[in-house]
Design a protein that fits this description.
This protein is an alpha+beta fold and 318 residues long. It folds into two domains: 175 residues, no CATH class; 62 residues, no CATH class. It is 28% helix and 21% strand. It is built from nine helices and eleven strands. Strands 1, 2, 3, 4, 5 and 11 form a six-stranded mixed β-sheet that branches. It has a three-stranded antiparallel β-sheet with strand order 8-9-10, with no helix packed on it. Strand 6 and strand 7 form a beta hairpin.
Length: 318
Amino acid sequence: MELHRLASPYDADARWAAKGEDLFWMGYKIHLSETCGTLPDAGAGKMPNLITDVHTTDATVPDVKATAPVQQSLAKHGLKPAEHYLDSAYPSADLITKAMKNGIRMVTPVLLDHSARAKGADGFDKTAFTINWKTRQVRCPAGKTSSHWNPVTQHGTDAIVIAFSVLTCCDCPFQQECTTSRLGRRMLTLRPEELHENLARARAEQKTDTWKNEYALRVGVEGTTNQALDITGIRRARYRGLPKVRLQHTFSATALNIIRLDAHWTGHDQHHTRSSHGVAVGPGCAGVAGGVSGGPGDPRGRGLCDAVEGAASGVGAG
């Protein structure tokens, strides 16, 4: 049984959390998902973007832990998106691969290789090595092959540790550009083949202008976050305990959907969110460019997801 340190005598579910150097709060975190569209000339007849899922956790749960539950909830209610737009806190190689198997393409920036050689401009990172998964060998830029291929488990995840022989590396003219190891040999840590290939493909895609223009669509959910904060005060929990706070967040999302539908049906425009990279994206009100591409219940649609940090717990003696 996992034990948590009590953060408040008034709310046993509330937790302290921090983001960056200037945001601290005790309470919860909300992840909002909504439908989205890409057509800048969508007319007023298009349905507005609607919130399709609200996922509430205590404040300490990392965003990456919310990805699978959100996608499972959307699929359970017949709202599984063909494309899911998320920020960089949500993906991992395992989640991207699992989502692909479930028919969901995650459009999200993945973390780059932060190894010393990847950061340096004069070294050889993993992309400089050729991997032969069948023979379980790796060839380096100098044309030498690895001597060890060791499947391991690191921090609960499967990995493969590759090592080159000291004798192979000691006389190599590229040794200084390849390794800083005291033993003088190069070692690599890889994920299993499918995960490695999917992660490498995602890293390559996010460097292209096509991907950047496509990902600009995610800016629309920032408008939804602001709308939730301004209209419903979602950052302030009015109740104590995770079940009641989760219910409050669901009511808040429902209220926003009603406001958007009312604006759509009555022809009253809401404030537009800012446009990015030539793609006009709004929170889903009538007349805003970017109507729904596959609305609620349409599995061909797209989905946005974002977290609202700083959802404080309604704690106190009163």
